[in-house]
Design brief:
Rossmann fold; five-stranded antiparallel β-sheet; 10 helices; globular
Length: 354
């Protein structure tokens, strides 16, 4: 069941800027589509309009080609999973999962059979009689997924479903959700601000900013080919360095980088992801050639990874992410100079500021 949104617009306070403005995209059938963006970008508002929990000021929502913009939420055939579980604390796991079917007045035998099926699907086969308070956070969220799937929804809508969980459980459930989608083939829309979550789980990513779609496409395409300075900065948390185009040559400090297509002489920004910077040890007395010399101002270790803070000859600061083994192989520490290669930088005309 594909989901098509066209020209969605929503303003909550008269006179304020719209929370969502002219949002259009298609979520393909059976796939996971992520709505990714910073807080306040309009992701959840779009999801709520698809669910029928908010009515758009203009635009339309269609499921499998049928316009359901004004269709009541209970008739849209969607399942919803929230960040906060929203389980009924007085009902056991079986009661929570079967609640929607009970409201639909399904036969007792049919409810029991569907609950049994879902308990196996979400890996809680032996926990049906437990109350929510007797479950871990990850188990509670699995119950929430099972409850959403119980009525066999055409579309599954997920609003930051892993946001309240600790890192280990979040990563486990991220893998589990991918497996669940592969088994059920339910068209899924996932709201998240976690880039790794969106890039790993999704077949399509819709990046939103200030209520609009900034870029849409396959995760790898968005990562490799950002369409704007915002995307280049947001995806991968890039360093932003100032440069200049002159006579068709683009320079960032002392280093030449790729020139944007159709560029004219003027200022540019180079967006350099911390994990894509290459460092090598500077040999005393030898020139760096085309590579600038940076000085290490600080090293912060986080487990097997390190964050290296550099200061460049332009007096700009840059963050570099390395494995601990890579840093040890370089044999450098605070105060040392290193050669800095930013050849993978994404370059855009103009002077961009966050």
């Amino acid at each position: 069941m594909s989901v098509t949104v066209h020209g969605l617009r929503k303003r909550f306070v008269q006179g304020d800027l719209p929370a969502v403005e002219d949002v259009s995209f298609v979520a393909p059938s059976g796939a996971i589509t992520s709505l990714l963006g910073p807080s306040g970008s309009g992701k959840t508002t779009v999801l709520r309009m698809i669910a029928g929990l908010e009515e758009p000021d203009s635009g339309s929502v269609s499921i499998e080609g049928v316009d359901c913009t004004r269709t009541p939420v209970q008739r849209r055939g969607v399942g919803f999973v929230f960040q906060g579980y929203a389980l009924f604390e007085h009902l056991d796991v079986r009661g929570n999962i079967g609640f929607g079917l009970k409201i639909q007045k399904a036969a007792r035998a049919a409810i029991d059979a569907r609950v049994d099926e879902l308990l196996v699907l979400v890996g809680l086969k032996d926990l049906g009689k437990r109350l929510p308070a007797q479950l871990s956070g990850g188990q509670r969220q699995r119950v929430a997924f099972a409850r959403a799937l119980a009525t066999r929804p055409r579309v599954l809508l997920l609003d930051e479903p892993f946001g309240a969980l600790d890192t280990r459980v979040r990563l486990e459930l991220r893998d589990w959700l991918g497996e669940l989608n592969a088994k059920t083939h339910v068209t899924t829309l996932l709201v998240t601000h976690d880039q790794d979550e969106a890039l790993e789980l999704s077949q399509q990513v819709i990046v939103m900013n200030e209520g609009k779609v900034a870029q849409a496409g396959a995760p790898n395409h968005i990562y490799d080919h950002p369409a704007s300075p915002f995307i280049a900065s947001f995806i991968g948390n890039a360093n932003i360095l100032k440069g200049q185009v002159s006579a068709g040559v683009t320079a960032v400090g002392s280093m030449a980088v790729s020139t944007p297509q159709g560029a004219i002489d003027g200022a540019v920004n180079a967006f350099v992801r911390p994990n894509e910077v290459k460092l090598s040890r500077a040999v005393e007395g030898a020139g760096g050639g085309e590579l600038p010399l940076g000085r290490i101002e600080g090293i912060l270790r986080v487990g097997g990874n390190v964050r290296v803070n550099l200061r460049l000859p332009s007096d700009e600061r840059m963050t570099v992410h390395l494995r601990m083994a890579e840093l040890e192989a370089l044999g450098v520490g605070e105060g040392d100079r290193v050669l800095v290669d930013i050849g993978s930088a994404k370059v855009f005309m103009g002077d961009y500021s966050i």
